[in-house]
Design brief:
Blueprint (H helix, E strand, L loop, with lengths): L1 H23 L4 E3 L6 E3 L6 E3 L5 E3 L7 E7 L8 H12 L4 E7 L11 H12 L4 E2 L12 H6 L16 E4 L5 E5 L8 H11 L2
Length: about 200
C-alpha cells in the first residue's frame, strides 16, 4: 500500500514539474492566432515600406530603443504627435527612434495618401521622426510586423484597440511593453521606461 502511495506521489510531482517546465519555456517565435504560421519574435527580422515606398529592413535599427506607433490625422489622439516629437528630440541623440505607421482601421481617421499624411505631420506638428507606409494593423490583412506585435510573449494576443497605441522595443528588437492610446507620450510611465532601456 505504501509503495502504491509513493509511486502515485512521484508520478504527480513529476507531472507537475513537466507542466511547469513546459509553461515557462520561452520560444523565439509565436503562432499567429488561427493560421498556424510561426512569427519571428524580434522586429529585427521584418522589413516594411517607408512613407516614400522604400523597403526598410528593421535590422538596421539594431542597438536602438524604438517606439512603434499606429497614427492617424483625424483622431482625438492626433495631438499626441506633439508629445511624440518632443520625446523624439529629447532622446534621439541617445539612440532612440520613433517609427510611425499611419492606419485607416479605426473610424476612417487616416484617409489621406502617404504624401498628404507627411505634409499634415510636418505642417501641424513639425514631425521629424520616421513615417512609414499606411498599413493595416488589425484583421486578417494586418501587416506581418503588427501580427507579431499583437501576438507575442509580452503583449499577449490582443488586437490593436485604437489609434496611437505604442510598443516600446528594446535594443535587441524584442517587445518591452505595450501602451494604450490614452498613455501620453510625455508621461512618466513611458519616458521612465525609455530612459531605462537606453541605459542598458
Amino acid at each position: 500500500m505504501k509503495t502504491v502511495f509513493l509511486l502515485s506521489t512521484i508520478i504527480i510531482v513529476a507531472g507537475a514539474l513537466i507542466f511547469l517546465v513546459a509553461k515557462n519555456t520561452k520560444s523565439n517565435s509565436y503562432s499567429k492566432k488561427g493560421d498556424g504560421k510561426k512569427l519571428e519574435a524580434s522586429i529585427l527580422n521584418y522589413s516594411v515600406k517607408d512613407n516614400g515606398g522604400n523597403i526598410v529592413n528593421l535590422a538596421d535599427y539594431k542597438g536602438k530603443v524604438l517606439l512603434i506607433v499606429n497614427v492617424a490625422s483625424k483622431c482625438g489622439y492626433t495631438k499626441q504627435y506633439k508629445g511624440l516629437e518632443q520625446i523624439y528630440r529629447k532622446y534621439k541623440d541617445s539612440g532612440f527612434e520613433i517609427l510611425a505607421f499611419p492606419c485607416n482601421d479605426f473610424g476612417g481617421q487616416e484617409p489621406g495618401t502617404n504624401e498628404q499624411i507627411a505634409d499634415f505631420c510636418s505642417t501641424n506638428y513639425d514631425v521629424t521622426f520616421k513615417l512609414f507606409d499606411k498599413i493595416k494593423v488589425k484583421g486578417d490583412k494586418k501587416e506581418p510586423l503588427y501580427a507579431m506585435l499583437t501576438n507575442n510573449g509580452v503583449t499577449g494576443t490582443d488586437d490593436i484597440g485604437w489609434n496611437f497605441e505604442k510598443f516600446l522595443i528594446a535594443k535587441d528588437g524584442n517587445v518591452v511593453k505595450k501602451f494604450k492610446s490614452k498613455v501620453d507620450p510625455l508621461s512618466d510611465e513611458l519616458t521612465s521606461l525609455i530612459e531605462s532601456e537606453l541605459e542598458k
